[in-house]
DNA sequence: TAAAAACATGTAATTAATTACATGTTTTTC
DNA sequence: GAAAAACATGTAATTAATTACATGTTTTTA
């Protein structure tokens, strides 16, 4: 039997559907927003995966209609899917995170601090990451205005906090080398 | 004409070969070590890419033999390849880095601070990231023992510094939530 | 000196992921 | 009321990446 790649996407979808039944479109939004800092998936990857997961018996869907005829599929977990999710969360995560950062790699190929390309490159990234940091902070303010909100979605708070700290570090690091 | 995916791997290989002629094996090591924090590629991806790049005229190779018969291919840049590298480094990098972190995603699905799984999960990751941090610091000590070493491979120093700071943040963040 | 680890190069099979193609509805904004 | 944006779902084509298969040499270690 072939084990194949880990198919982590399915687990993430299980986790998202466990929070509440959702459409593929909703899931795609989640990958752009709250979890996009830590995992990415397009709708073209999500819709086929949903079909596959329904075939496996981990999720089911209910057809609904918005307005006159806009068809939606509201997916939710089966008990089997829920069990799979619980097992995944509980098992160890021995792999360090994988980051792909094209900018940092370009820096690697800059040989001296005097290279005229260096400062503009750092400047460009600073603009980008400051904007991202501001955006994440803004989101924390709106999503978690008080302790009650934090307590009700603690995991979400944790990862947003992590993402903000990470961006803050990135900006600080860039500024350390900016003149 | 189809534009296709960005094929960043080729540029990274160009950059590595620009430092010094290397074999595919050497390149695979680089992806495990100095740049592995920011890009990953296995030898099974590297060898075919080298052939492709040689066909495109960006690199060439020289056959050498170690010992009695161990054949090696020492790849190096052609002028065309060098030009391609320079163009890549100079062009903007408007995309934020992409991170895939399975552990953080698991946290997202933890609903309350009282969940009994939370502390062991944080603990496990702390062990992992402390080890990684120690490893990176150790490498900085050996690779960059003095200012001269830094000046001679500034880009390398920059990205190692970035990776250390990032790991330090990760550990600090984990410890913030550990009791 | 035998075994293990590291060096060295490839291909095959499979899965993951992106980009493009394709279509239609509902809501919001000007 | 028209246009734009957002909602909604899919497939096709292609590229990227991983895992497994496959083989052999050289160096280091016990």
Question: Can you tell me about this structure?
Answer:
The structure is a homodimer. The first copy, chain A, has about 180 residues and is mainly alpha-helical. Chain A has 2 domains: about 10-90, Winged helix-like DNA-binding domain superfamily/Winged helix DNA-binding domain (Arc Repressor Mutant, subunit A, Orthogonal Bundle); about 100-175. The first copy, chain A, contains 8 helices and 3 strands, in the order αααββαβαααα. Chain A has helices spanning about 10-20, 25-30, 45-55, 80-90, 100-110, 120-145, 145-150, 155-175, and strands at about 60-65, 70-75, 100. A two-stranded antiparallel ribbon of chain A has the order 1-2. In chain A, strand 1 and strand 2 form a beta hairpin. In chain A, helix 1 crosses helix 4 and helix 6 packs antiparallel against helix 8 (about 155-175). The longest helix of chain A has 26 residues, at about 120-145. The termini of chain A are far apart. The relative contact order of chain A is 0.10. The structure holds a DNA duplex (30 and 30 nucleotides).
How far the N terminus sits from the C terminus of chain A, by CA atoms, comes to: 57 Å
**Multimerization state:** homodimer
- Superfamily (CATH H level) name of the largest domain in chain A: Winged helix-like DNA-binding domain superfamily/Winged helix DNA-binding domain
Q: Specify the CATH class of the largest domain in chain A.
A: Mainly Alpha
As for the CATH topology of the largest domain in chain A, it is Arc Repressor Mutant, subunit A
Reported for the largest beta sheet of chain A, the result is: 2 strands, antiparallel
